């Protein structure tokens, strides 16, 4: 697991369980556990990329009507109690919101916490030139003909 995701491993595993329960299985005649339990096909429209940038509506958290209604957050999972998304603010607070706009091409967590990540020596990125190529071997099936 990547070190910067370590504080959110519980939410990450909850998201994985949600995804696994929504995937079809050959053991259940290509039905997913959700479909077997609730007798309907699950809706996948609510699924979003873990760690992406999001902008939740903060009107219920605002102290007055001229306060900011949204800012850049990080999506860290789904709420098991509410129909909503868990969004992490750069201050470290987690907000639950149902009305969220997602940018699934941007992952701001590293930029939010770059100072704490730079002090950590366990996370280092390797340039691609240092990675070694692993050859791909194909398995050959045994010949069915007998040698004469």
Q: Which structural class should the secondary elements be placed in? A: alpha+beta
What is the string of helix and strand elements? HHEEEEEHH
Mean pLDDT: 74
Q: Radius of gyration, rounded?
A: 22 Å
- What is the molecular shape? elongated
The strands making up the biggest β-sheet line up spatially as: 4-3-2-1-5
Largest sheet: 5 strands, antiparallel
Could you tell me the strand content as a percent range? 5-15%
Bin the helical content: 10-25%
What's the end-to-end separation, in Å? Answer: 55 Å
Unreliable spans are 115-131, 136-141
Please tally the β strands and state the result: 5
Count of helical stretches? 4
Short account of what is shown:
The protein is α+β, with helices and mostly antiparallel strands. The chain is 20% helix and 15% strand. The chain contains 4 helices and 5 strands, in the order H-H-E-E-E-E-E-H-H.
What does this structure look like?
The protein has helices at 9-21, 33-38, 109-112, 114-119, and strands at 53-56, 73-78, 85-88, 94-97, 100-103. It is elongated. 20% of the residues lie in helices and 15% in strands. It is built from 4 helices and 5 strands. A 5-stranded antiparallel beta sheet has the order 4-3-2-1-5. It has 148 residues and is α+β, with helices and mostly antiparallel strands. The model is unreliable at 115-131 and 136-141 (pLDDT under 50). A hairpin with a 6-residue loop joins strand 2 (73-78) and strand 3 (85-88). Residues 52-110 form the Retroviral polymerase SH3-like domain. It comes from Stephania yunnanensis. This is Retroviral polymerase SH3-like domain-containing protein.
């Amino acid at each position: 697991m990547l070190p910067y995701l370590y504080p959110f491993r519980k939410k990450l595993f909850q998201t994985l369980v949600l995804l696994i329960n929504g995937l079809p299985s050959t053991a259940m005649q290509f039905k997913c556990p959700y479909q077997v339990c609730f007798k309907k096909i699950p809706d996948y429209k609510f699924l979003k990329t873990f760690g992406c940038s999001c902008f939740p509506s903060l009107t219920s958290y605002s102290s007055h009507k001229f306060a900011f209604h949204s800012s850049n957050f990080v999506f860290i999972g789904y709420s098991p109690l509410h129909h909503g998304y868990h969004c992490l603010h750069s201050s470290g607070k987690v907000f639950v919101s149902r009305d969220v706009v997602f940018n699934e091409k941007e992952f701001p967590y590293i930029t939010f916490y770059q100072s704490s990540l730079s002090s950590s020596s366990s996370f280092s990125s390797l340039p691609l030139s240092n990675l070694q190529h692993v050859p791909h071997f194909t398995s050959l099936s045994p010949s069915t003909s007998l040698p004469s």
